[in-house]
Amino acid sequence: MATKTEVTVEEKLRALYDLQLIDSRIDEIRSVRGELPLEVEDLEDEVAGMGTRLEKLQADLEVIEDQIKEKKNNIEESKSLIKKYAAQQDNVRNNREYNSLSKEVEFQELEIQLSEKNIKEYRAQIEQKNQVIEDTKSRFEERKEHLKHKQSELNEILKETEKEEKALMKESTDFETKIEPRLINAYKRIRSNVKNGLAVVAVERGASGGSFFTIPPQVQMEIAGRKKIITDEHSGRILVDPDLANEEREKMQEMFKKLK
Questions:
Q1: Which domains does the chain have, with CATH numbers?
Q2: CA atoms of 66 and 221, how far apart (whole Å)
Q3: What is the predicted pLDDT for the residue at 1?
Q4: What is the pLDDT of residue 251?
Q5: What is the pLDDT of residue 5?
Q6: Closest C-alpha to 102, from 81, 83, 86
């Protein structure tokens, strides 16, 4: 069995480009999902928040209903006291006692008026809160339906791609073990710093893939020679020649078909 030191530069380049193709396919699968997982998460939070708001509004209504009951009880107590004081006025011995009871009656009548005013205000609050509850329920049902649709959409995408993504991630890990740590570290560093995660690219029309900077003919010849690992001086990407790239693409496409 060949040791790592016996692996040729060409074999390293092929392995790196294969790894890039695998990781790019994983990126492609994930891009199909796009912002959908985050969108679903945001909708779940929104729906949960609206549910909590509805519970609070219902609890507020119960508190107001209890306040109305309390005021109604106060009114009945005041009416009873008025009857009591009116009866006592029939048996008073002097004007002072009569006037004192009259003031008590007057005070209870004011208490009744205040309680009735409070009840009117509480009923206005109930009407307002019921309107808010109705509007919130409408939006709540609408957002729940939207969430259900988005969850279904996400589940469908996951169902279609989950198997392939898991298989590709395993292949990516396996391919990493075939490449020396120094190159893997460089690959990951470049991949995290460049657009579209492309750390290894083919030379296309005399330029680095995805770049407009022309590569000198001498350097192109060195890349085609596959004797050393060459990076693009502008982007830092590892460069491979078009023939090697085409061969590896064909090979990896066959593998991708089997993983679906």
A1: 4-33+180-259 (no CATH), 36-161 (1.10.287.1490)
A2: 88
A3: 38
A4: 93
A5: 55
A6: 86
Whether 210 and 239 have beta carbons less than 8 Å apart is answered as: no
d(CA 61, CA 52): 14
Q: Token pair for residue 64?
A: 């107001």
Q: Which residues of the chain carry a pLDDT beneath 50? A: 1-4
Q: Residue 230 in 3-state DSSP?
A: strand
pLDDT, residue 260, reads: 72
pLDDT of residue 3: 43
What dihedral do alpha carbons 49, 54, 60, 63 form, nearest 10°? -130
Which residues 6+ apart lie within 8 Å of 184 measured at CB? 176
pLDDT of residue 4: 45
- Residue 124 CA to residue 250 CA, distance in Å, equals 74
Q: How many other C-beta atoms lie within 10 A of the C-beta of residue 238?
A: 25
